[in-house]
Amino acid sequence: MTAFPEGTVLGYPRIGRKRELKKAVEAFWGGRIDEAELESTAAGLRAATRERLAVQGLGRADSAIPESFSYYDQVLDAAVTVGAIPARFEDLRSADGTIGLPAYFTIARGEGERAPLEMTKWFDTNYHYLVPEIGPDTVFSLSSDRILRQVQEAAQAGFRTRPVIVGPVTFLALAKAADEAPEGFDPLSRLDDLVPVYAELLTALKAAGAEWVQIDEPALVSESLPASVAELGAAAARAYAVLGGLAERPAIFVAAPYAALDANLAVLAAAPIEAIGLDLVRGTVPAAVAGLADKVLVGGVIDGHNIWRGDLAAAFDTLEALRGLGAAGVAASTSTSLQHVPHDVEDETKLDARLLAWLAFADQKVAQVTTLARGLAEGRDAIAGELDAASAALADRLSAPGVRVDAVRDRTAALTGADFDRGDYDARVAAQESALALPALPLTTIGSFPQTGDIRRARAQFIRGEITADEYDGFLREEIGRVVALQEELGLDVLVHGEPERNDMVQYFAENLDGFDVTENGWVQSYGSRATRPSILWGDVSRPAPITVAWSQYAQSLTAKPMKGMLTGPVTILAWSFVRDDQPLAETANQVALALRDEIADLEEAGIAVIQVDEPALRELLPLKKADQPAYLDWSVASFRLSTAGAATATQVHTHLCYSEFGVVIDAIRALDADVTSIEAARSRMEVVTDIAASGFDHGIGPGVYDIHSPRVPQTTEIEALLRRAVEEIPTRQLWVNPDCGLKTRGYEETNASLRNIVEATRRVREDI
Length: 769
Ligand code: GLN
Ligand code: ZN
Prior knowledge:
Blueprint: H1 20-29, H2 35-55, E1 66-67, H3 74-81, H4 101-109, E2 119-121, E3 128-130, E4 133-134, H5 146-156, E5 162-166, H6 168-174, E6 176-177, H7 191-207, E7 212-216, H8 229-244, E8 251-256, H9 263-270, E9 275-279, E10 296-302, H10 312-323, E11 329-334, H11 353-356, H12 362-378, H13 384-399, H14 406-413, H15 425-436, H16 453-463, H17 469-490, H18 507-512, E12 514-517, E13 524-527, E14 530-532, E15 535-542, H19 549-557, E16 564-568, H20 570-575, E17 577-579, H21 585-605, E18 610-614, H22 629-644, E19 652-656, H23 666-672, E20 676-679, H24 688-695, E21 700-703, H25 716-729, H26 748-767
Parallel strand pairs: 1-5, 4-6, 5-7, 7-8, 8-9, 9-10, 10-11, 15-17, 16-18, 18-19, 19-20, 20-21
Antiparallel strand pairs: 2-3, 12-15, 13-14
Zinc ion binds at residues 446, 616, 656, 658, 741-742.
């Protein structure tokens, strides 16, 4: 067995420095390039990645470089590798039973009546994976040799890389029961049938030349999955007893990113595997457990979630502490895959040099890992220069202008309980009823209207300087005029301006608040071919000038109906940005909240009587560990309340959440104390109203009646049925009618038709109440 490398990373961005993979994959989907060309682009990206990682200091031949490429998603890769695809896609297999690239993409994206795999959040990140569907009859069989071919491709280029796969426990723990499975079926019950396929794969990887394999088992750290920590641990013990016992296999490195392993460390330590990866950014150095003496501990001390250069000396201290556990070896690594950070700081040409010196994207993090690895091998003195340079950058960051602004800090320090409290709800209802005079079942939308090609083109022209600010402004006003006229014509009750001026609901605010910067090339995969460019929140946040007021005021001037002001909430702004790590998130959230509070005051001043503060990411930041959840919910709810509590009694505050699995967050949603909350409900056929009714939720609620994720136009009778179900369970005075989410990804044709049907369905239901 060869030694584990002294330094490694758990994975590297796959999309390419210039999003080459996105472009190639989308060209393939569009029929503009063929499969061979796509494969060769992808091979080129993999080759460039290996070279890049070697240049940053990872070994070419010691399994330090992870083979972590994916065309779309690592969970889908695992599903296709073990052949666990839903019955509705079975006919897509090749004659020899393998699943090729076109089939892979069809499973990811669906085709006609064939629904794709569902997509959901990957642990506590903004990455979304495809949810495997497993039933009692799912047949597991090796159905793709893609990962083997990548190992061989690397060997031909002179590398010995380390293949990375999602582990069997995590794969099943994240799966949902297939449609045809009996009630209560648990995918994890299929573990013993799945493990032999992993065994076959490991043996094949060994034959292909892999000395080490990385098996990702993040499920082992989570307390937020249907299976308990103990059940997951028991499953891991069973699976790794088999895999570890194989005669022919690579050495096994089980990585457990995203939080502390806690009790499951003992399980992995007792298993016949060779290395264990610990997240020492989210977790701390654990106590020693039995079984470590023959294992390498891979210390994830470089943060894979954020883009800060961070405290390298502290990271090295952590690795030294890890050495105290008596393991056979200690290696330096990232806490998670680097798929959550952009490629390279060097690609940013417009950021301030001072800010740049504080940052580390994937390439810089690789270099940090190799520095730490050298320290482990040669002693601290050998890397003293690098540690000092990182400490100096950190010190510079703490003292730089804008990082700590007295005026902002004085304001948050002076906050009292009253600043978080809007006062009596009944009084608000009465004041709002007389101010707004809305009909029963008021009709509204979530905010955005279709972002047409024209809008994107105008924005691009404005950014490139091809049209003037005045021309762009005029274009947006015309667009707003059209959207307002359409809503009046349709007969909606609370209108929106449509958000044509926003590229992105967080970046738009980041661009207009102090304390933020935006990147040029800081793309991070969010799912499949989609990437986002999170803003960087580096300093104290304040609002130099009103942001949305002119647009809302203009839109209100076009109609006698109430125009809804539209803001993104503090938690969502934090969740979808890279946030400073030198103070508690709660403090940063309150700064953002105060900026929004000022915006709300200005909107009111401008005559806006209804204001929505979107918090679609409220549940996203929920910690994986139960013990951490109450504190998170406390500060996140508090920041929302701080942002809205300055609103007048007669101002109606709305919020919007993109999901309906209320579960753990129902109390938090109630505690937001928004006058009206809109949520997704159409996809689950309004099932959520039962939970809402049972929870005693007594504020306004708009369960969505239109699934905007699909181009499908819901029929009037269908919407009517959904509404009648809602009316049955929830008092009508609480109910609102709206789509599930914003309309920006839809076209006008289906938007018009759908909204028309919603209005007609509402008219019919109103007649009977
Ligand atoms: N107001 C936003 C919109 O309609 C909300 C988007 C979201 O919830 N993600 O686009
Ligand atoms: Zn939404």
